[in-house]
Amino acid sequence: MRGSGMVGHTAQARSTVLVTGLSVFGLVGGLIGLSVLGAVGQEQDTGDRGFATTLDAGKIPSGFAPWIERAGQLCPEVGAPLVAAQIEAESGWNPDAVSPAQAQGLSQFIPGTWATWGVDAAGKDGSDRPDGVADPFTPGDAIMTQARYDCWLAGKVKDTAGRGDVTRLMLAAYNAGPGAVEQYGGVPPYPETQAYVVRIISAMARYTGADEERPGESGGAFGDRVVAAARKWLGTPYAWGGGGPEGPSLGFAQGGGTVGFDCSSLVQYALYRGSGGKVLAPRVSQLQVLAGTSVTREEIRPGDVIGFALHGSFDHIGIYIGGGQFIHAPKTGDVVKISELDDPYYAGKPQRIRRFG
Known about the structure:
Radius of gyration: 21 Å
Order of helices and strands: EEHHHHHHHHEEHHEEEEEHE
Shape: elongated
CATH class of the largest domain: Mainly Alpha
Distance between the termini: 43 Å
Number of helices: 11
CATH topology of the largest domain: Lysozyme
CATH architecture of the largest domain: Orthogonal Bundle
Oligomer: single chain
Strand content: 5-15%
Number of strands: 10
Strand order of the largest sheet: 5-10-6-7-8-9
Largest sheet: 6 strands, antiparallel
């Protein structure tokens, strides 16, 4: 990793997103060329998302699962799926990994940080008995040290939690150092750190046996998952042209320099994740309101998609969450948030409601 405040090597998370539909990105009807976006992310939301804590041990390389389960019990902020996703990002499950910055082992601690935090939890022979040496190349030692340090970081960043939930800030601090999180009052504007946080939050789902995110109120299994997927990114910045099925990404034009979602990419993401990758909606709102099945306002239920013709075309879109509310990415300078359908700004505009599952 970069700098003395880092724990391990630089975690790069550059994945490409294939954009479908017309060669436009639309929140306000602007037309620009197709683009492939690198998935880096910065989250700024306002509370605990209740991330999953149940580990699917079958997804863990042999011998590591008991240690990850144990590490996931050290503090409420650090569940076992998070520990597993973090190891994947840090070392790719290689206990002998050494980075160019000399970060070492599964959890990629630099020697100075290890000297302070290293835990002797296991034997080099794979036993669960301490052997008198805290060794970053011993998986049990590395995993328990990682969780111990994560828990300490979670405590350090709690005072900054107004600019992001504790889990994301803790991950940012692990990557960039707690001083950087304090300096910027949230996830630092370092592309590698933003990518690191998004990569781990996204990877957590692979290490859980089921989607444990909170459901919607009565949308059925599919609708509840769509709502939960969108809620996960409450507080994420609006970025025109940013976002896609894999999560938030760097916008361009008026979204240039901002990592996040625009209205249609948030909808595309939530449908894709809520369906387990089976529903890939068009990228733009004008096409999303033509896809799926039309339903009336009286039939609307959580997980349905609702489009608004704000400026002559259906140039804004969101997801109904129940109780007369919808979640959406409104405009440049705003964040993913929940609004009321009876807000006069939206209530008086033509609307279309579509169901995708």
